[in-house]
Each structure stands twice: as C-alpha cells, then as structure tokens.
Design goal:
Low-confidence stretches: none
Number of strands: 2
Shape: elongated
Number of helices: 8
Distance between the termini: 14 Å
Strand content: under 5%
Structural class: mainly alpha
Strand order of the largest sheet: 1-2
Length: 191
C-alpha cells in the first residue's frame, strides 16, 4: 500500500469518527512525517502502521477521542436508531402501537450490545458487517429466546413513545451534522 493510500484511509476513518479538521490535518502531517522517515530508513509503510491500516487509524482516533465521548455518542444514537426502526414497524403495520415479543427484544438487545462493543473497540463496522453480526449474534439469540420464553407479547410501544425515544438522538445527530457541514475541508498533506 502506498503512503498516499494509507493517508487517504486514515483521513476518511478519522473524518468519519468526527475528529475535527485541525486535528485530522495535524495527525496526517505527523503520520506523513513518520512514513517519510521510514522510507528514508529503508523500511516499508507496514512497519509504521502495521498490517491493518483501518485498525491503526481506529486506535489513533480512540486516543484522540476518549471513551467517554464515544460512549456519549453511542448513548445518543442508539435510541435514535431504535426509534427509527420502531417507526418503520409502525408505518409498515399502519398501527399506533407495536407489540414487542421476547424474541424480537432479545434480537435487538443482542445486536445492539455486539455492535456497541465492536464499534467502541474497533470503530465503525459498516452496514455489511452489522448485518453479519445481526445474523451471527442476534438471530440465534432471538430463536433461542422464542423457544424458551414463547412468542407472546411482552408490551406494546405506542407511537408517541417511539417519537419520544428518538428525540435525544435526533438532537445529537442534527448538531453533529451541522458541525460537520460547518467545518472546512482539510487539504491532504503533501507526500
């Protein structure tokens, strides 16, 4: 992998994680200097970043964005995602209330726990890997729970509660989106 490609992968990873542009520019300049020093010493870029560039970028991002900030972001966005999914169920069934069964609750709790643990540790999974986690972790938990607990309704979620659950995450997402739009685009470092 070329130095330019490594810098591009790191930049996109850091920007996705919400690291501000000034910090991204600083990190890219520092990484570019390390890569140049390695090339001057006759070492490969792999000696600087390792075999997995995305894991390298994620670990550096975690150092820049501490756990409490990432946990706050996840705590705000998880209810938003849950609310959006519930809203789709409301619309699909054209119903003012959604019945929650033990299997569906177990599926979403297992999926959320696995996703949060993996994302806090490694970074974003992306849509494809999230679906894989859902099939590997969530589906067996849902089937097992349905067999053990049955398929009766645990509780119903009214539409007003779905909207209420979404509000904190919606405010956070709008704020994060506005902050991202107001940031100037960072220039790539000269390699």
């Amino acid at each position: 992998m070329t130095n330019e490609r490594i810098l591009a992968v790191c930049r996109s990873n850091w920007e996705y994680r919400g690291i501000d542009d000034a910090a991204v520019r600083e990190m890219l300049a520092e990484l570019a200097a390390h890569l140049e020093d390695a090339a001057t010493a006759g070492r490969a870029p792999r000696d600087v970043v390792g075999d997995d560039v995305q894991a390298f970028a994620a670990s550096w991002a975690r150092a820049r964005r501490p756990l409490y900030r990432r946990a706050l972001r996840m705590a705000a966005l998880i209810p938003l995602v849950a609310g959006v999914l519930l809203l789709f169920v409301h619309l699909r069934r054209w119903s003012p209330a959604v019945d929650v069964t033990p299997g569906s609750l177990a599926f979403w709790v297992a999926l959320a726990a696995a996703t949060v643990l993996l994302e806090l540790r490694r970074g974003s999974l992306g849509l494809g890997r999230t679906w894989v986690v859902g099939l590997v972790v969530g589906l067996p938990v849902a089937v097992l729970t349905e067999r053990v607990a049955g398929d009766g309704t645990l509780f119903s979620v009214p539409l007003w509660l779905t909207v209420l659950v979404m509000l904190p995450g919606l405010g956070y997402a709008v704020t994060e989106h506005r902050a991202a739009k107001s940031r100037p685009v960072a220039d790539p470092p000269a390699a």
